[in-house]
Specification:
This protein is of the alpha/beta class. It contains 9 helices and 18 strands. It folds into 2 domains: about 5-40 and about 120-215 and about 315-360, FAD/NAD(P)-binding domain; about 45-115 and about 215-310, Polyamine Oxidase, Chain A, domain 2.
Length: about 375
């Protein structure tokens, strides 16, 4: 009987678990551990608790997804047929460095009525019975196993989420062993876990390869107004601004017309507020009002992402979808694409899961 461990319950980890469990020679038992309270990773969602749009669902991490490969397109077609995803827009606005706004046409961007996290949860619900998915579990120490090739110590998480600095485990309350391991998390987090075994050259080599793929931080501002007062736009890329890089009209994204905007900061701005993200609310609001010429919002909140997206000059080639060390430990995610995106994370996790299933079968 073969066994696998997947660390990370975002779309990459769930895709890896699915591939491990449905390969031509499937792995018998797959354990998925995620640090967050719910699955989804950076496809995170929050339901607003206060303000005029209390009850409205907001995407706090990834803003949308696109389709480029037919295999992912088949998954999206199923979501569309069941009403879990919806076409959002082919046209996005761009604010140039001189402040002018123009409309640009591109690929169809898709959204989800119940938030992007609902799509990850849908994939997880369809996993075979041999896959056990657990949240609030922190992977603390990966090392050689006593019975199987690899052993992982894990413990509960007391603060933070799967992408926040400050998420921490208190002690270790279980040890799991497996034939293969998939680390489906930001490469910075994978490197930290791998370096817990400094005397294992396979793991330290993999850690060094992960460390070469940096992630950038981001702050997400959620702002509410009683009613909409801006010119309609689905999303807006902001060029040359020191504070804000992207703005999403969440009422447009959700399709309910809510007067809610979500603004993503630049990485450089976020670095100055990672310890005190709430202190960034005032300058973020000021930048948003300046860019769109709108009134003061009546309710705001800020979400911190310590490892939000791969640095664009650090991602791998489109042919290298994952990292794999001798012995069956691999790393997957959106760091392995020239265009980091949800589709890339799904493709990476699926490819790594397929490769690890073959290794487990041969062991």
């Amino acid at each position: 009987m073969t066994a696998a461990i997947v660390v990370g319950g975002g779309i990459s980890g769930i895709a890896a678990a699915g591939a491990l469990a449905t390969a031509p020679r499937p792995v018998d038992r797959v354990a998925v551990l995620d640090r967050g309270r719910r699955l989804g990773g950076r496809m995170a969602v929050r339901t607003l608790r206060t303000g005029p749009w209390a009850g409205h669902i907001v995407d706090l991490g990834a803003s949308y997804f696109t389709v480029g490969r037919p295999e992912f397109g088949a998954v999206v077609d199923d979501w569309l047929a069941r009403g879990l995803a919806r076409p959002w827009s082919e046209e996005f606005a761009v604010i140039s460095t001189d402040g002018t706004l123009s409309i640009h046409r591109g690929p169809m961007r898709f959204a989800a009525p119940n938030g992007l996290r609902s799509l990850v949860e849908d994939l997880a619900a369809a996993l075979p019975a041999g896959v056990a998915v657990r949240t609030d579990r922190n992977a603390a120490w990966l090392r050689r196993g006593a019975v199987r090739p690899w052993g992982l110590d894990a413990g509960p998480v007391t603060s933070g989420t799967s992408a926040d600095p400050g998420a921490a485990a208190v002690g270790v309350d279980e040890h799991i062993e497996a034939d293969v391991v998939a680390l489906c998390q930001p490469t910075s987090q994978a490197a930290d876990l791998l370096r817990e075994s400094p005397n294992d050259p396979d793991l330290t080599g993999l850690a060094d390869a992960c460390a070469r793929r940096r992630y950038e931080p981001l702050l997400a501002l959620v702002a509410q107004w009683p009613q909409r007062s801006w010119e309609p736009f689905p999303g807006c890329f902001v060029n040359g601004d020191a504070t804000i890089a992207f703005i999403a009209d969440d009422g447009s994204r959700r399709g309910d017309g809510a007067a809610v905007l979500v603004a993503h900061s630049t990485a450089e701005f976020a670095r100055g507020y990672l310890r005190e993200p709430n202190a960034a609310a005032e300058p973020l609001v000021a930048a948003l009002r300046r860019l769109l010429d709108i009134d003061e919002p009546v309710a705001v909140e800020v979400k911190r992402w310590g490892a939000a997206r791969p640095a664009t000059d650090e991602v791998g080639s489109s042919d290298a979808r994952f990292l794999l060390a001798p012995g069956g430990v691999g790393v997957a995610g959106d760091a392995f694409s020239q265009r980091p995106r949800i589709e890339a994370a799904w493709l990476s996790g699926r490819a790594l899961g397929t490769a690890l299933a073959a290794l487990a079968d041969a062991s």
